[in-house]
Design goal:
24 strands, single chain, seven-stranded parallel beta sheet, 524 residues, Immunoglobulin-like, alpha/beta, Rossmann fold, 23% strand, five-stranded antiparallel beta sheet
Amino acid sequence: MKNLLMLLFLFISSFLTAQQVEDAWVYFLNKPQANTYLSNPLSMLSQRALDRRSRLNISLDEKDVPIDQSYIDQIKNTAGITYKAKSKWLNAVHVQGTQNDISSLLDLSFVDYIEFANKNIGIVTPAVPKYRVTVGSAQTRSNFDYGAGYNQIHMLNGEVMHQQNFTGAGVLLAVIDAGFQDTNTASLFQHLFQDNKIIDVYNFVDNNTDVYQRSMHGSGVLSTIAAKTNGTLVGTAPDVSVALYISEDVNQEMPIEETYWAEAAERADSLGVDVINTSLGYTTFDRSEYNYTLDDLNGVTSFISRAAEIAVSRGINVVVSAGNSGGNPNWPKIGMPGDAEHVITVGAVNANGDRASFSSTGPTADGRIKPDVMAQGEGAAAYWYGSIQNINGTSFSSPITAGMVACMVQAFPNKTPAQIKQDLLQISDRFNNPDNYYGYGIPNFSLYDTTTLDEQYANDFYVYPNPAKNILYTGSNEPFELYGMDGKRIMYGKARQNQINISGLLPGIYYLLFPNKTFKIIVE
C-alpha cells in the first residue's frame, strides 16, 4: 500500500508540474523580410536614428529588422499559449503556458529553439535540427531587382556575389564589338556617363572615336553586363567600368577585322583592362579563299586566336562567344577566337538550362574540350532597338559570363587569368563530367567563396566521414550552406554539437560551404 501511495503521489506531482504555467522565450530561425527592410531602413528606424548610426559608423544588420509578424500571429493563435512580449534584437517572443504546450511550438517550422525561464527545464531543441537563413550587414550587401534579367543571373547564382558587394566595382572591362548604337542616348545606359564609367572608346573600322553607331549589337551585349535599372534590367557587373571598341565591320566579312580586333585588344592592354568580352567569331569570309577549315580550329592558326592568347598572357581575362553554328552541318563547331586554349569560351542554354540547338560545339582540331562553360543565350534579356527584348545567341551568353568574371576579378584581384578560369570551371555543374556540348557546364557563383574547393582537411577543421550516409561530423560550428550539383541550396544553418543531419539527402555529390572553406561531400 505504501508503494502504491508513493507512485500515486509521484503521478499527481508530475501531472501538476506538467500543468504548471511556465515562462519561456521562443527563438525564431530567421527574418524572411530582412532584405526588404534593410533596403528601406526608414521602414524600421527614424531618420534621427539612422543619422546617429551613420555618424558613429555603425552598420545596419538583421538585428534592426522587426520580427516577422506572421510568426507572432501563429504563436498567438496556438492553443494554450499566452503571448506576452517580443525582442527584435534577439528575434524571440516571450510566452506563457504549460511546459507541454510551449514545447509543442517546436513543431512550427520557423521556431529554432525554446529557452524556459525555469532552469530545471532549460533549453529545448527540435529532435532534427532546422536550418536558418540569415542576412548580413546592410553595408556589405547589394540587392537588385533584376527585372527581365533575373533568370539569366539567377541561373548562375550571380546574385550571391552581388549580395557580397562583388558587382564589378573597380574592374575595367572592354567590349570589342560591332557598334554601340543608342548607348549614348538610351536611359538604360545613362548611369555609365553620369558615373564616368566609360573610360575609353575607339572605332577601329572608321579610325575615329565615334562608337555610338554602326550596329545595335554592342549595345545589346553591353546591357547584359552593365545595365543598372532596377525593375527593368540589371547586368551581371552593374558597377563595372567599360571601354567600348568597334572592330567588326558589319558591311563585310574580311580578315582585316581580325587585325582590328588585335588593335583593340592591344589598346585595352595599354589601359590596364581586366576583362575583354568579344561576341564575335570568324570562320568564313566574303572571299572563299580566306575561309578557315575545321583543321585550322587549333587555337594557333587564326590571327585573332593568336592575338587573344597574347591578351591572356598579358593578364587579361578574355571571354568569347562559342558561336551560333551548332545546327550547321558544314561547320557545327566553335569559331575563332573561341578555339584559343586559354580564353573562356561560352556556349548558350535556354531559360531551363538546356543547351540551345544553335550553340556551337567542340572539340577543337587538337582535341581540347570546348566550349568551356554555358550561360543563358536563348531568350536572354538585352537592350534592343529601344526596349528590353529576349534575344538568341552566344553573343549574349558570353557577356553575361564576362560580367561575372569581372566580379571574380574584383573579389580576387591578384589571381591570374589561368586561376580565374580554373575557378570558373571548378564551380560549374559538369566539372566532373565535361563534354563538347556543355563544356564544364553552368557556373554556380554561390560556390565561389573559397580557393580550396577540393581540400577536405586543414588543421583541426574537418568533415567526416566522406562518403557519408546519415550524419556528417565537423570541427566547426560556424554557419554552413549545403548545395547540390545543380546549384540549388538545400540546407542553411549551424551544426549542432558538431553534427549535420543528412539522412534526407539523395545519393550524390554536394558542396558544404563554411565562411572560409568548402568541402565536396559524397552522400551514399
